[in-house]
Design a protein that fits this description.
The chain has 622 residues and is an alpha+beta fold. It is built from 21 helices and 22 strands. Helix 9 packs antiparallel against helix 10 and helix 9 runs parallel beside helix 11.
């Protein structure tokens, strides 16, 4: 690596020549760009090591970029052509903070760039300190497009990564291989993530391999998607669009896939092609120029080959830098809630299972059921997870409404310029795990869309009934529990009985359920984040009152439980714990002989532990 020392010195004559050249060139440019006049004030700020390596014409550009960084407090990036026929392009990063190689190298590697050398400069002016990190780069692949063609898309992608708005992963190498822009690659990334949620025997690495080994096929996939949904008056007629745009691109894409050598790559590329073909709506073109950019696609599940059963009627997948989400419907008119999932690897499987349950629950209310869910992706510096969940929830709701039709003056208004399905204006959401307080948020988003259902869009808000306050699901299930115990000769409203639960007190179902009898002796509970254990619950009302306190505290968890009220040998432990000590009381109850146990194994033991009732949200096993 090239690291010039500040001790290096230019001869005075050369130093003066460099400065005179800088001033002369700046004055010449001022005639065309008067705003550059301030650059003359900085002729003497460049250190010796800088003047040894950087010509005056590039110094002017560096001043412009540093002033931009000072004004925005955000990093900036620029690419410079080779200074000589034998040298390489240089990639310059500008910032107000000192950054290290390990921060930049993953970005450059994922872009398919090879670093030849690097140098760093520190410049002080106007009371600021600015840093320039400069890399000499080459493409790592022989298939790469020439750099002079890549400049616009490459710089836009790097800047978007620096701004925290684009994922830094291996798919970004498609920019260098095909000159695709970062949003085109993000479309393929969205389909990659959706594909992985379908439970196929593929990994992110295998999908990357298929796309990067066959970059022209990757480009064809995006071109087909883009032509399928691009708003274009001359192709408003679906037949003309098919004849003039889609059919030729489909042939090109199939020919490109036929040329793929690796059979696994072939399967993956065909599967991605199938997913694009099964997509009936997308908000990509309406969102790509907005500040709040994300991608939502609506998929006809019947058109997806090898989709896990049962197949929903339709599903909408939402992809953003900070979240992912999905909404599954059993039919056109269906109802169900939106939950905050803690299963990033298979949240669609979780939502699919819950959609089936919702279909059964809705049998007497509406024709069928629906369910939605989202995950929050970890972001650097993210501390308020609840606020991040609200942001993710809003993005999901916006994605759903982007692709849902509306009613206006008794006429259906299509939400998208290109839709390959029938009119579809019915969409309602409800509260679920982690979103009990979000109904008003959903209705406020609905209002900005002027959605025809108004505050009927999201039930449970301040203008409707509150799931948590009424506790309908829990009270209905509790009647079944009471009857079961009554048939065994036990009155659980007057006699103590032990419970092991799956849930947390802030939820509307489990939380309500654990308050429906003061004689509940909750020995253990498992939530998404914690394991609560109370081997010998107190006989008084202290535990009941503490559960009630957590129930009315928004966003509470078992970690908020007063440890002084937990019996000897109990406690609250994170579900990620590698080692949980087993007290004498716990060993005696669970029949274990170990000194400690990991969280996952303890959960398995607790689900079969001696107790009168296993309470699992709306399922109660006695």
């Amino acid at each position: 690596m090239l690291e010039p020392s500040n001790a290096d010195q230019l001869p005075v004559a050369e130093e003066n020549n460099w400065q005179r050249s800088f001033i002369k060139l700046t004055r010449k440019l001022i005639g065309k760009k008067p705003e550059l006049s301030s650059c003359l004030d900085y002729a003497g700020i460049f250190p010796t090591d800088y003047r040894m390596l950087v010509p005056p014409r590039h110094a002017i550009k560096d001043i412009i970029f540093l002033k931009q960084v000072f004004n925005s407090s955000q990093q900036a990036v620029d690419i410079r052509p080779p200074l000589t026929p034998t040298s390489s392009y240089r990639l310059n990063f500008y910032s107000l903070q000192l950054h290290y190689l390990d921060e930049y190298m993953p970005v450059l590697e994922n872009l398919g760039l090879r670093v030849i050398d690097q140098v760093q400069f520190c410049l002080n002016f106007d009371g600021h300190t600015g840093y320039i990190k400069s890399f000499s780069i080459q493409a790592a692949s022989d298939q790469a497009t020439a750099f002079y063609k890549l400049k616009k898309n490459l710089l836009a992608a790097i800047q978007t990564i620096l701004d925290g708005k684009l994922e830094n992963d291996g798919l970004n190498a498609l920019i260098v291989l095909t000159d695709m822009d970062w949003q085109a690659i993000d479309v393929l990334r969205a389909y990659r993530n959706y594909f992985l949620q379908l439970g196929r025997a593929n990994t992110e690495a295998s999908i990357h391999k298929a796309l990067l080994n066959n970059p022209q096929t990757a480009l064809c996939l995006f071109n087909y998607f883009e032509a399928r949904f691009r708003p274009d008056p001359k192709w408003q007629d679906a037949t003309l669009r098919e004849e003039q745009a889609l059919f030729p691109l489909r042939l090109e894409l199939l020919q490109s896939i036929e040329a793929v050598i690796d059979v696994n790559d072939d399967r993956i590329l065909r599967a991605l092609f199938n997913l694009i073909d099964a997509t009936v709506r997308s908000n990509f073109h309406s969102r790509k120029t907005q500040q709040n950019y994300f991608i939502a696609i609506k998929v006809d599940s019947l058109g997806v080959i090898d989709m896990p059963l049962p197949r929903p009627f339709k599903e909408i997948y939402v992809h953003a830098m900070h979240m992912e989400g999905i909404h599954l419907r059993g039919g056109k008119v269906s109802r169900g809630g939106i939950r905050w999932s803690d299963r990033p690897d298979d949240f669609r499987t979780e939502i699919l299972d819950l959609m089936q349950t919702q279909i059964s629950k809705n049998a007497l209310i509406v024709p069928t059921g629906a369910k939605g869910g989202f995950i929050v992706k970890n972001q650097p510096g993210q501390t308020d997870l609840r606020a991040a969940a609200k942001t993710a929830y809003i993005t999901l709701i916006e994605g759903l409404l982007d692709l849902t039709d509306n009613f206006q003056d008794n006429e259906i208004i299509c939400s998208q310029a290109m839709a390959y399905d029938d009119a579809d204006p019915y969409l309602v959401v409800a509260a679920d795990k982690g979103t009990a307080q979000f109904s008003d948020i959903a209705n406020s988003v609905s209002a900005t869309y002027q959605f025809w259902l108004g505050d009927g869009f999201a039930s449970g808000g301040s203008q409707g009934y509150n799931h948590k306050a009424l506790g309908i699901t829990a009270r209905g299930a509790w009647e079944c529990v009471k009857r079961h115990f009554r048939e065994t000769g036990k009155d659980i409203q007057a006699e103590a009985f032990t419970v092991v639960g799956v849930g947390s007190m802030d939820g509307d179902v489990f939380g309500n359920g654990m308050l429906l009898s003061p004689f509940i002796r909750l020995r253990a509970a498992i939530s998404g984040q914690h394991i609560f254990i109370d081997p010998n619950p107190p006989a008084d009302d202290s535990a009941f009152n503490e559960r009630k306190r957590l129930f009315v505290s928004p966003g509470s968890s078992w970690d908020d439980y007063d440890r002084n009220l937990i019996s000897s040998g109990g406690g609250v432990y994170p579900r990620s714990a590698k080692e949980i000590p087993l007290s004498a009381e716990l060993k005696n109850w669970l029949g274990l002989r170990f000194k400690s146990i990991d969280a996952d194994t303890l959960i398995k033991v607790l689900l079969t532990a001696p107790a009168d009732l296993l309470a699992w949200r709306h399922r109660y096993l006695c």
